[in-house]
Amino acid sequence: MRKQSVLFAASEVYPFAKTGGLADVGYSLPKALSDAFDVTVVMPLYHTVDRQRFGIEGPTDFFDVMLGIERRTVSVYESRFEGRAYLFVYEPQLCDRDYLYGPPGEGYDDNAQRFGLFSYAVSELARRLQSDIVHLNDWQTALTALIIAEDDTLKASTVYTIHNLAYQGEFPKSALSALGVDKRHFTLEGIEFYDRINLMKAGIGYADAVTTVSPTYAEEILTHRFGCGLEGYLQHHRAKVTGIANGIDTEHFAPQSDSSLFRLYKTPRGKHANKKHYLAEAGLCDAELPLFIFIGRFTWQKGIDLLLEALPQMAALPCNIAVLGEGEPQYAPRFEKAAEAHPNIHLFFGYDEALAHRMYAAADFLLMPSLFEPCGLNQLIAAHYGAVPVVHRVGGLADTVAPVAYAPEAQSPCGIAFDAATPEALLGAFEAALGLFNDAKAWSRVATHNMKADVSWGQSASAYAALYRKISGSALK
Ligand code: ADP
């Protein structure tokens, strides 16, 4: 039987370009689906993508897309990276930039045109490939759902996944004509949002199915607290909204074969050598103290303010704390101030994939005080590397981190969760973590459970497969 063909479109895909979890999903979900479906992944060919390293060839195809009255020529490149099919769309305005979306905390003014162009290119590729299913991700590709829904000659069914509702692709309404979108879609039911364009609404409103990246976040986004203004619109479309938790690629994130590590390991005991090595690298001392790490984007979503407020009190306790991240400029000086007063805090500002892996291998605990978290991957990676997550019980963190008392029976990894978004609650969880660490047997039981817990794509890939089959069978087109 012919496999159904899926075109998976994302604005970033690991290892070609990555700013966050979307890129990890863009790599690992298509990989997990590739036995059951004929999957092609498409992304922009940013000038930072290393064509030689990834065997990207071309251009193998050209076509024009219309952005309103402007005709743009797009070229297509290809790679069979790790045996899977990747397409890359090149057009100078889309691709020749220093950042994917803009400097940290800002977006480029012409992002509507840039990703509008990408969205048209994706729909044209769906036509050429005769895709059965087009899987769209976040606002950057949301317009494709509207384009496909409006074009009778395009037969694909569409899935739209919300990775983060906080980034909606909002633009002045003047961009409507540049996007070539008919004015009749500029309504409450369409893509209008307080007299502006909202591309996220194109995905939610026009796709055949909408998913988000954890069951709890799927419920939360229907509420005022987490809905970012779209709760009413999501409630209206709730019949087609489901939550499917992300997994991680356990071949890539694998302490027994990860080439970034100082020493490979299969049980938490093997972490000690990595911890000693990392502490030396970071200029921290005393491997007998628990090591807490934070890795992530410096933005309010990640609970950086909570972390900064609690940091001096945490660092006054017997521990080491290491932070890896970058983002909004106001945060780095505040971290530096805390680190000046506490030599057991180590900071690394920047983006460093290999360092992140070494830190996961070294850590006893991961701090993840996110104010909201659609799914979160760090807690899954950290658990798989034998660390215990300390998390704010929201979104995917609530779904993927069970209480430590449930080890070793729990399905998911275990950790310590706090409920109130306050520095006191974070500090309470931090103290509970120290208590766990002081009971070496208890910590080891949890860490051993976490390394064995299933954080792979297995179940979630099956849920996507079932969804693909459902919509392609029941789609009216
Ligand atoms: P996000 O909201 O940023 O998508 P996720 O938890 O879903 O957060 O995914 C974050 C991914 O990015 C993880 O693979 C994490 O290890 C990685 N990451 C985040 N910041 C950095 C950094 N500064 N250096 C290296 N890796 C990072």
From TrEMBL:
It comes from the Bacteria. The gene is glgA. Keywords: Glycogen biosynthesis, Glycosyltransferase, Transferase. Its EC number is 2.4.1.21. The keyword Transferase applies. NCBIfam families: glgA. Pathway: Glycan biosynthesis; glycogen biosynthesis. Pfam families: Glyco_trans_1_4, Glyco_transf_5. SUPFAM superfamilies: UDP-Glycosyltransferase/glycogen phosphorylase (SSF53756). Residues 6-236 form the Starch synthase catalytic domain. Belongs to the glycosyltransferase 1 family. Bacterial/plant glycogen synthase subfamily. This is Glycogen synthase. The lineage of its organism: Bacteria, Pseudomonadati, Campylobacterota, Epsilonproteobacteria, Campylobacterales. ADP-alpha-D-glucose binds at K18. Synthesizes alpha-1,4-glucan chains using ADP-glucose. It catalyses: [(1->4)-alpha-D-glucosyl](n) + ADP-alpha-D-glucose = [(1->4)-alpha-D-glucosyl](n+1) + ADP + H(+). Gene3D superfamilies: Glycogen Phosphorylase B (3.40.50.2000). It comes from Sulfurimonas diazotrophicus. One of its GO terms (molecular function) is glycosyltransferase activity.
